Amino acid sequence: MNKIDKFIIVFLFFIFSASSLSGQIYKPNSFSSSVIFGHDSNPLRLSEDEISQLSDKPYLLGSASDVYSRFIGLNAKFSFYSRKAILAKIFDRKTSFSFSVTYKKYFDNKEKNSQYFTFKINQQLDKYRRLHINYSLMPQYYIRQYEDLDYLISYGDIDDISRHYSCTFDMEKLYIIFQAPLSLIQNKVKVGAFYERQIFSPYFTEFDLNIAGQSIQFLFKGDNNYFNSNRTVSFLYEKHIGDNSTFLSEVFSANYMNRDYKQHRYKVSFNQTINSSKSFGFIIDTYKRFNTSKIVTDELHYKRKHTDLTLSIWYKKDRSKIMLSNRKRVARSPFGWVEELKSFDRYILTLTMTLANKKF
Prior knowledge:
Blueprint: H1 7-17, E1 27-40, H2 48-52, E2 69-82, H3 86-91, E3 95-106, E4 114-124, E5 130-147, H4 149-155, E6 164-181, E7 188-200, E8 209-224, E9 229-244, E10 261-273, E11 278-291, E12 305-317, E13 320-332, H5 336-342, E14 344-359
Antiparallel strand pairs: 1-2, 1-14, 2-3, 3-4, 4-5, 5-6, 6-7, 7-8, 8-9, 9-10, 10-11, 11-12, 12-13, 13-14
């Protein structure tokens, strides 16, 4: 987290706390917590080719004991509101806030342990319209072991295992979303923009990215005659433009590799309530990425594209929710070795149990 700029945190902290300096009060709204038990078949996102070569290249696993890993997660969320905060004064309506923390511990791959923080502001503009400001931070997220390309380029020693390092990055993301009703009040549209930064560890600064994008989401609610209860369907589209901020910098490898890309995301979510204690649903989440590198010798990125598809189904009863997800990435490139390296398959099974769900 050392390299992440703090200006966004300071900005949000100012919005949250400025009115407190004037003796104004924030009131609690709710608190919830949950524990997650899971199994990930391929947390390092290794390709089939890499998995088949692990006996010859054990360094690909890093400190992991196997390709798969079991994990446990803890999540806590606290929400509160104010009728006297800055935005509440401007729009003469209460402002809602929430802060959540998620921690995951991987038993078979300790380097994958992660933390995730989110801070959200939900401002009611009028009876039906809202403004959402969401900020998230994920520090020191471990991807996998990679070769230090600058060392390899300088010395040409591709067999030097000691030059494989843990690749981590800090990620921060800011979303601003406007929500309005459609012709029927229960149906909504959300239009937003976001900005994301990924700052990599010192050995891999050539990977640094600034990502900007726009999003639009439609949410439809209705009754289902079979279950005699509500269902919700949402459609999300996002456009991402990734800028490799260190391209052509002083880093040696950054002069012949360019990670710029354009990406489209399509997500469909379905949620069916059966009764007050039971519900089920599914999620289809697809990313289509096109790398825009024009460097012919940049085989890793030149004319590379991929489709990254995640299918999830879930069932919830009372305070327990079980979900099965399959994520599959298929890469396309003029170079066969790139297609093999950047394609992978992954299954994740989770059981989430709500520990507390209290409204004040």
